[in-house]
Protein 1
Amino acid sequence: MSAQRLVEQFESLEKQDHAARLAMWMFLGSETLLFGALFAAYAYYRGMYPDEFVQALHHNSVALGTTNTVVLITSSFTVALGVHFIRENKARLTAGLFVVSTLFGAVFLVVKGIEYSHHIHENALPSGMYTFIDKPPAGVVLGYTLYWFMTALHGLHVIAGMIMLAVVALLCWKGRYGAHRNVAVENVGLYWHLVDVVWIFLWPLFYLTD
Amino acid sequence: MSQATIDADSRPNPLGVGADHPDYLRADSGLRSWLLTKDHKRIALMFYVGVILFLGLGGVFALVLRTELLTPEQTFIDANTYNQMFTLHGITMVWLFMIPAVPTVFGNFVLPIMLGAKDLAFPRINLASFYIYVLSAIILLGAMLAGGADTGWTFYVPYSTTSPTAVTWMGIGIFVNGISSIMTSVNFIVTTHTMRAKGLSWHRMPLFVWATYATSIIILFATPVLGMSLVLLALDHAFGLSLFNPRYGGDPVLFQHLFWFYSHPAVYIMILPSFGVISEVVCSFSHNQPASYRAIAYSSLGIAFIGFFTWGHHMFVAGLSEFDAGVFGALSMFVAIFSAIKVFTWVATLRGGSISFATPMLYFLWFLFLFVFGGMTGVAVATQSLDVHWHDTYFVVAHFHFIMVGGTLTSFLAAAHYWFPKMFGRLYDERVGLLTSVAVFIGFVFTFLPQFLLGNGGMPRRYFTYPERYQWLNVLSTGGAWLLGAGLLLALGNLLLALKWGKRAGPNPWGSRSFEWITASPPSKHNFEETPDIERSAYDYTLSEEVARERAKAR
Ligand code: HEM
Ligand SMILES: [Cu+2]
């Protein structure tokens, strides 16, 4: 079975697996820089408008943000467990853990949705959404814009990660992966950790620094 | 080649590895076998077609621009058309030709063979990368039909956010284009790390591989930043996000920072693969090992690294502090140092070599001239006091065309001729090759040399009319552009004719020691049956061809 999965351009499974892992790391590196541009913008504008940013972040609920941090860290833990068990050939256990992680992802999105609806009520909106009259001071709006954009982009990554987790969970259940065939499982795990790590940077920036 | 028939038995597979299998062009047939191919060589050819189409399209735009500038007043298009035309020209040339050209065509084709691999690590991603490139081209062309953009290729805010043209779609198109280059880069990096043949240590690899590797690293780190900035720009244009709009507290200079953080390295994305091509050409045609292999290889990495810390030299007049400007100016000089290392090493390689003077070698000479000249003007414009005078004049246009267009175009043509026998198994007509090469060079110099004078005399860039006194230089430049266009068409014609009527090439018509010449020309579908065993460097010209083959055993 393992001989079968060797694709023709590689001469050995080790090399093939090495390649898949390396590719994932490269991809994660470029994802990090995608957010990097936004972190740079955040730092730049926060330096320009320190007080306005504090005023903007005041709308964020530390409780909800922290809940989401806990949710994501827990999901990262279940993902890590899943990766651990696939190495012990317990594919079904992995499948279950990945499903649980996917559900945590869903919880995260629900909480995020609740937050967003609060913001909409409180008129804490990204630029472009205001009429002339109700527009808060410029620096505050920049804060909102960055908040919305960065969290929404992160949210898209959560959704992408959930889809991957679900697919891999299904394939684990069907016995596609096992102790000797787990690079895809590991790679999805890595991706989910990235989603988690990005949030761990967003959390202090948007919730803890007012 | 001819000796092959004399004592075929004493040489290991004189027709090249895999010559007893059908070559990649014939291995499968039918349109489907091309469109769904996972063979890196076929994908390279598909990119080839695309890249040449866009070079042609960008060239047509350029000729329209230059023809408009023939007379001081309006010649035949109005100001708005002119603005859109130079934007389209820049966008097509930068993202659809110069950035992808050498890596996707020649990188794709020769990199795996140079490494002794059967294919890239992820053939499916490679194919996807091609279709994403096509998709990006469709979006960009669609945006062009929907009015194009009139912002210039730099998309400076706040104008770009309020311009009534199709800026949103341009931004999206370039973002998609970036996905394609990131995919290709991941593929190259991973392939270089994991698929080298037995015995092929890092210091035995062909220099082209080093160059492509360094380029891929830049792409991986710089492209996402550009992608992000353009997405923000597109959202701003579409929904009024206003992140960079001073009216809403934003800072347009931040956009410039983000843009140049990518786009300065992007100029090395365009030029580094060219360095790789030039290194191969110089060694092959002087039949000599590079004067310093390590200097060439590591200076690519040096440029890749320093390139990330020089972006501010585009912003000397955008309100940088004196201190910042000084730092960015000084850092820029490091790039010049690394580039000079390369130039000296190439020239030193010629010494003691036995030089055969073929078309690719002629392109090397043009490359050397344009690159050194363009690079020195780069040092000049990286000096703040001088740049304040030259900024946004034709001097800058001339500088970046010399180095960027001169560099990619000459090396692209060098590569097209150099690897032509490998790719298609035939030889082009050498005399026509030399002739068209001269035409291209003369056309190029006549187009851009006058622009240095124009810029120094104060003619601003991006204007479609100008005072009378600039006319004679503009006429020279326009004439040069037409000659350049004609030269390129003739070169293309020469290669196209050779596809069918060229003489058959042996596996190694230039007598090169680089590894791609071990396989048959054209190579069979999988290049090698098994990974070869490599017991020498890619430039071991102390060995005879037979021994060199023997030391790079391959089936
Ligand atoms: C490796 C080859 C190089 C390429 C492909 C290249 C390309 C370019 C391009 C495309 C621009 C114009 C950007 C625009 O549209 O505004 C430019 C401008 C500039 N380049 Fe280069 N360049 C190269 C080397 C250098 C070097 C070595 C230096 C400095 C030591 C340099 C310094 C500058 C400066 C200061 C400007 C800005 C001028 C201005 O806008 O006033 N370049 N270059
Ligand atoms: Cu630059």
Protein 2
Amino acid sequence: MMAIIKERIPTPERLIEERLQGFMEVNLGYTFELALQEAQRCLQCNPAPCIQGCPVHIDIPGFIKKLRENKEDPKKAVKEALEVIWACNTLPAITGRVCPQEDQCEAPCVMGKVGEPINIGKLERFVADYAREQGIDEELLQEIIPKIEKKKEKVAIIGAGPAGLTCAAELAKDGYQVTIFEALHKPGGVLVYGIPEFRLPNDTIEKELEKLKKLGVEMKTDYIVGRTVTLDELLENYDAVFIGTGAGTPKLPSLPGINLNGIYSANEFLTRVNLMKAYAFPEYDTPIKIGKKVIVIGAGNTAMDAARTARRLGAEVVIAYRRGKEDITARIEEVEHAKEEGVTFEFFLSPMEFIGDENGRVKAVKFMKMKALEERDSKGKRKIVPTGDTTVLEADTVVIAIGKTTSKLLRMTMAKIEADEYGVIKVDEKLMTNIPGVFAGGDAIRGEATVILAMGDGRKAAKSIKEYLEKKANNT
Amino acid sequence: MYEILEKKEIAAKNVMYKIHAPHIAKKVQPGQFVVVRAFENGERVPLTPVTWNRKEGWITLVVFSRGKTTLRMNMELKEGDKILNIAGPLGNPAPMKRFGKILAIGMITGIVEVYPIAKAWQELGNEVITLHIVPEPMILLREELENAVSRHIVESFPLKEGMGMPEIFKELVTRGQAKVKELIEVEKPDLIFMVGPAGGQKAIFDVVKEYGVPMEVDLHPIMVDGTGMCGACRVTIGGEVKFACVDGPSFDAYEVNWEELIARSGFYTDLEKRAMEDYLAKLAQGGVQ
């Protein structure tokens, strides 16, 4: 029996000075040797609490075991580990990077009780990256594809984000004919327009998507379901439909001055930079205007992404949050990275008014100072109340990152789908909507959640769709 | 990828493209627009289909060389080339109703968007008068409009040497306002509709509101995705924040916060100029294929 190593093996990271020069990925990931050292720390619990903590129930001890078992043959080790992961998750290079592991698989890890939990996310990412670099995923794919028994049923997926992509992958692996309809010019949804490259490189996403194409998934970009093609038309031509349209509409506070120039929704700010590469303007034609002082309002992952993006564009950045430090919703790693990169935090500030100059551009934000009470709200967060004191912070750019709601276009064009007053689609326990054969998942049914929960829904919906189609086939 | 079936310059700085885009041709209605991304490093540009053929699967677009992406399109794209992305149709169709007598105004390239709507309104039994306020070299779709509506009027002027954008704009506004005043008094329209730059729309609205004639405007704020996702195109309508891409593009002129719209429309002017200069400099050096 080996001695227990309490601390996790750290992953190498890019130097801070270097990070601020561009959009290169910050975390460099494990090498095989480092991954192996980390894998050795796993206690191989049975039953394993980490599996329960994972929304898609990846056999985590299982894939870690495969790495250790074949340590003399890295290729074999990674291939077998990848096989275990793929059984539940076809997009590990993405989830390994963006899942909030500390709240999910790593939270109940037994090692966490005696030291630091196993770095599951980084191990998952290692397997995915190593497999890609060495062509192992391609090899595995070529073994899987010939075994797929083609089915005649066709499934339409609306939205090429995490939910839709996962649903598509699962159905394609079972031989269904899958077509994804995506409104933007690139598939990926929030992964390509929202999450910056320093956290999730676009190249990584593209490689993961190529895999889906090889599995036979057809991707139609520039297709706006509701406008380019209606839901009724999809129902005529496909045997089932999955709605994974996410929560794309930004929430903007109804405050004076919200439409001043220089005030961006996080979606617009990140879309300009990530999807349209405004950081390379004028080589890329889409501009972004950022001054010297940027205030980001909000403290979720999107706020961290916007703040760190603004730092890379050369601004001083303040994150203003109406609650305290303990209520930050972003992942710890992202908050740490933001701090390292020079982002400063101001707590208990709630925006009241945006103040503009004579040209209609924002120059400052007036905040109400808040304070926390002992009493807690339904989400377990301390209630906050205004103190009556105000403060004004200068800013030439403001990014609003206080959340998103479901797509308005969806509500306008798919009125037959039952939804609540916020446009959140109602589904049963099988994720089926009020229309038979139409399923939904991800932020479209949750309002706002994480990439992995959306993927979990995609997977669950795929299972329900299979059951639905099998039942339908048996009845006819 | 969408093939360019035909390309021709139809006025100064204005190029008409006939493009194979069956998914859009099948669905587009007057009043709707598309978002075009022509090059890998190009912007997403909202444009209006002018005509379309559902059976043959094509649409036509008129592209005005306004910024770098549009200038590049007009300089670099050839017949047979492919446009990377065209998404749509987006926005709400224009209301197809009988209004009675309609004055539909297009300032400069605004007439491109007016054309399909005016034509459809005329076909529906309205009496449509169209007015194109434009410098002479940029007169567009004259014949098409003459054939489509009850009466087509062109209010134009020759461009004089050394006339800059501010002078041209002032001339457009002065002439436009006088002509609209005259038409309201003589023709007594039941509805006025206008497309053009925000400043021009506001100037014409200032005349219209004196008479209290109902007025609808198609707005063109800065847009990125066009599907309601980014909020770049937000406008204040009757005190409420709306997204022009999903709530519009048509709004009641009396409800629009014009000052805000005009300020927001000009936010990137300096950067647009920089991109254009950068491109022209590269072009002069022969640096762009």
